[in-house]
Write a structure and sequence with these properties.
mainly beta, Jelly Rolls, nine-stranded antiparallel sheet, seven-stranded antiparallel sheet, 10% helix, 34% strand
Length: 302
């Protein structure tokens, strides 16, 4: 059997002609993908409709204006309506946007990345993060998250940066080991020239690059990201993570080991965004920002 190349998988994901996505030359099974570091990831394109169409909408946290705060106070807006007590950078780097500023009839968040910033472990600190734990997701072993993101028309992607995703437990990141007992995280990343990827911290994939280039983030317009997570049965590698962009299926990471205990479940949103990686090559050369809005949590029908 003739095996498809990664370029053909990318073409399927992006809807582009094959000539626009060439660059990967290795041959892999149709259900396989690649990472640029670490082990091979089994990836494909979702064969089901977007999770927001199959799950029930439960919560819609909006960054509302606090009664005692200015309209641009992003920190108060996050604390008020996102079920969070853990956050960083929201007091300095997050601005609340009104519906008139977003243009989508609901408020949003503008996250700032000052010139010379990258990882939050370095100074000066750019970007922001918080952990949202919606009550509707408590004890969930499968869930769906959607949100909208907008990169300005003059955005410089540099080498890449982090974007929000679902998490469970202690939400490992930053090079931490993952044992399937303490937690997992499933953030996204933007890469050079807007290439997208899944950036999981799960057993065997601690900060691996999965599915890079299966889609691209456009400039100057809102796009909707949907992420579905189906946890594995403890002791089996049968977990799944899926992604859609504007309703189009782009990536399915299969045979994932999220957990080795039934006590570990999906807790909520790991809102985490900054340039990096760490070090000079990752730092933004100038002040930049990215907008976020329309957060939604979904769970399967009971």
């Amino acid at each position: 059997m003739k095996l498809p190349t990664i370029a053909k998988l990318k073409a399927r994901a992006t809807g582009q002609p094959l000539g626009l996505v060439l660059g990967a030359v290795c041959l892999l099974p149709a259900t396989a993908g690649y990472t640029d570091e670490g082990p091979q990831a089994l990836v494909g394109i979702p064969q089901v409709e977007a999770c927001s169409q199959r799950y029930t909408a439960m919560e819609t946290p909006r960054p509302r204006q606090a009664a005692d705060a200015g309209s641009a106070d992003g920190h108060a807006a996050v604390r008020q309506n996102f079920h969070t007590t853990r956050h960083w950078g929201t007091d300095k780097n997050v601005e609340r946007l009104g519906s008139g500023q977003t243009g989508i009839d609901e408020p949003g968040l503008r996250v700032h990345y000052p010139a010379g910033t990258s990882s939050p472990g370095e100074e000066p600190r750019g970007g922001a993060g918080f952990y949202s734990e919606p009550p509707s997701l408590q004890g969930a072993d499968r869930a769906c998250l959607s949100y909208m993101v907008r990169f300005p028309s003059d955005f410089d992607f540099v080498q890449g940066g982090k974007l929000p995703g679902l998490y469970g437990g202690e939400a490992p990141s930053g090079g931490e080991a993952v044992d399937g007992l303490s937690g997992f995280s499933l953030r996204l990343m933007w890469r050079e020239e807007g290439e997208g990827e899944l950036y999981p911290y799960v057993v065997g994939f601690e900060g691996a690059s999965v599915g890079r280039g299966f889609w691209r983030f456009p400039l100057g317009q809102w796009v909707t990201i949907e992420q579905e997570v189906v946890l594995n049965d403890p002791g089996q590698e049968n977990g799944v993570a899926r992604l859609w962009v504007d309703g189009r299926p782009v990536l399915e990471h299969q045979s994932v080991n999220f957990r080795n205990t039934p006590d570990l479940t999906i807790d909520g949103l790991m809102f985490s965004t900054f340039f990096g990686g760490t070090g000079e090559g990752w730092r933004t050369p100038r002040d930049q920002y990215v907008d976020f809005a329309a957060f939604r949590f979904y769970v399967p029908e009971s």
